[in-house]
Structure formats: structure tokens, C-alpha cells
Amino acid sequence: MSFSRVVKESPALSSFSPNGKHLAVPCAAKVTIYNSITFQEIATISNVDVVDAIEWSPDSKLLLCLLLKPKIVQVWHPEDTTWKCRISEGSLGLISACWSPDSQHILTTADFQIRTTVWSLVEKSVLYLKQAKLPLSLRSFSQSGEHLAVVERRDSKDFVSIINCKTWTLEQNFPVASEDIADLLWAPNAETFCIWESPRTGFQLYVYSTAGAKLASFGLNEEIIGIKSLSWSHCGQVVLLESFDDKIMLLETVAWGKLLDYELPEVLTDNSMAIPTSSLQIIYKEVKTKQTIKRGPRPIESYYEVVPIRPVSPGYLIRVGDGSDALSQQTAVKLSASQNYLARISATFPNIVFILDIRKLILTAVLVHLTPVTCIAWDHQSDKLAICTYAKHLCLWTPSNAITLEVPCKAELYSTVAALIVGCHGVKGGTSIASHGRHNWQCVCAHVVLLARPSLTNNGILVIPPEQEKQGSASPRSARAT
Fold first, then answer.
1. Predicted TM-score of the model (pTM)
2. Does domain 132-263 bear CATH number 3.40.630.30?
3. Which of 113, 159, 294, 307 holds its CA 20 to 30 A away from the CA of 76?
4. Each residue of 372-409: pLDDT tens digit?
């Protein structure tokens, strides 16, 4: 892995283009476009005011910049700086903007959710969507890009409008069975979508077609606070649910029954965890490196160490979070690109990343950190997981090992984002990772071709050979079973 130079950015706004070739880094009113592999500067865009948000068009050709203070949207073509576009809602103000799937339309939302406007960049026409319900997430495009679903609130009841994205005309408007919709998500391979209730109304989801027919429902009468997040598998045959009380469920979408009901283990034993044929130990604990005063490069501040003790309690390995504010604590549940693994951050154990093997429906790895985990991101083409904590290094996990990598950034890392790189500049497949420092907001880009697989020491700790520790490269420490 090699790192770029550190550049300043606005708070964690950097974004990879969908094709993975470019990285946009905003800083105040300017946005700099870099090649995501070489980190060479391609273009610099100057806006009229501070940039509050950016978004690449789905075809990776245009870049949208949202400027909340002057209440305008500026659109740029990074490879043709003479082309530009400006959008304003006038006196109605502006709170958000996003692309349509065809990269030819932009949707803006006025202050107080008065209306959503559809702007055509090709025909230069304008359409209006009214009575949309807050929050803004209750507006979603289908995976095919043919339909837009908008949740509306009228007379204390929820309705869903289905809009044709080719003609931008209303196809259907129908009431739904929910009392208070929390969110909406389309299925990946069909013109159906899920809606689910807010936490105050219970644990309940409904499945609807674009014609307004209710196809299925799933609910629990148990004392579960509610659905916190929902995601579909790529094939659309499995739905992943996360509840507000740190439970995970897998549902099959034929009869909508439970495949897995997983709670955080109170005790980790060999019976509750996967033991591959290679006898790979699966609990990795981050430990501090002993610091010595000497000249030369500063050693990395921590590394992973294998924990052989069984049984062991997660609470013994690290501190336990305060369960009283579980609704507000940061959590995450993410599926890998292959859909074979699931990584999660819990409110109960904020310093631990739990990784489940979906094929075997068992826990396969536990990564314990010194500080709370702030962000996790899977590689878009393989089972590599990037982990950020409040520390000056980046953690990476694969099914075979786990490593820590020192990042040339003065501030602790707050978040990370990974993008797939396909066939750029002679590199056939790889991953670029942008990491964000939380103080003074710095961004550093790392290019990963293959995780290092150095030799083992007797205690199971991997050490990189000196010839691999070149200038500009990371100095990883890794743990793997002997």
C-alpha cells in the first residue's frame, strides 16, 4: 500500500467518482479533482462560496456542488472546465440536491420541504414535486432508474407516489399500511420496495409493488425498539435488518421468514465461532507498541495481536458502551461485495468490529480496538474491510489476516471510503482508500493492490521485510495464526 501526500479538505466531503477513476476533494470554495491512483491533480474548480456537499453524476462525467449560503447549486465538467451550470430556487431557499440515475436531471429541495424541483440539464425544463415528507431519505430511485418513489404526508396519513423517470409523470399514488414511515428502499432486481415503521410505532416492514399492491409484511410483537437500518442482498433474495437494540436479522424474501436472528454474544467460545481447517485464530486485539526514544522513523503506534483465550467475554476485552443512549450511538451493518461476510459496529461494544460468515451463519472474526470505531468500508470487489478508529492509523481485515497501517496524517482518522479501481494506468484491479483526519480536516489517499503477506514470527505477529518498507509506503503490522 502506498499513500499520497496529505491535503486539506472540508469536513469529510471527499468523494470518489462512481467509476473509481477520480477523487474530488473540496476545501472551502474550491474543489480539486485528483487521479485516484497516482493522486495527480487533474483540475481545480472554483465556486462562488463555500461548498457544503458534492456528488458525482452516476456516469462520472459531472460534479454537483451544493452551496447552502448563497442557496445555489453549481455543476461542473472536470474534463471541460468551460462547461458549467448554475441552479437556484430563488426566495424558496435550498436544503439539498441530488442526481437522477440518468445523469441528465438534478433534484433540489427547497427550505421547509415546500417542494422538490426536477431540473433537466438537456431540455432545460423544470418540474415540481409537492407534499414530500421529511426526512429527505423518503425519496428513492429504483435500481433500474425507471421509477422514483416519494413518501408524502396528507391528513396525518402516509402515501407513496410512483413517478416515471423517463417522462417525469405521476404513475401511481396510494396510501400505505404504515402509521409513520421511517424510510424506504427499493429491491435490487424487481420493481418492488420496502417501507418500515419509525421506532415509536414498532418493529414492522411492508413490501409494495409500483402498482400499489401490498405484497408482504413482517413484524414482531416482541419488545424490540424498531428497525434501525435495512439492506438487500445483490440477488434480492435476502434482506438484512438491524434493530435499535443491537440485534441483526436475515430474512428470505420468498415467504419472508427469518434465516438468522443474531444477538451479540455474551461469551466467545469455539462453538460460537468459525474454526477454519487452517486453525486460524479469529480474535484480533489491538495493542500499543512500546515506544523507544531513538533516531529514525517512528514505529507504528499499535498492531493486532491474536487472543487465544477461550471462553472470553467481549466485556473483558474492552469497555462496554452505555446502553441508555443506544438510539443515538453510532452503529453500522455492512455486507461485503461478495455477500459472504457481514461487518458490524454495535452500540454495546463501540470498540469492536464483529464479522459474520453469511454462508455458514456464524461469527468468523472479532477485531478489538483501543479506541471506538468510527467508520467501516468494504472494498467494492473483494472481501477487504477498512476500519477507522480515533487513531492515526488505518486497520484492514481480510479472511486470512488483519493489519494496522500508519497513515501520514497528523490528525486522528475519523472516516474512510473505498472505491474500486478498474484498469487505470496499467493497474488491473485494486482499491483506493480516502481517509479523513478529524482535526483541521485532512485527506490522504491510499492505493491498495494486494495486502502484504509477510512471514510469521513465533507469537503469530507478522513483520514486513525491510525491502518492502520503502519511502511513501505504509508500515503494516499484522496478526495471523501460526
1. 0.77
2. no
3. 113
4. 888 888 888 889 898 888 777 788 899 988 988 776 65
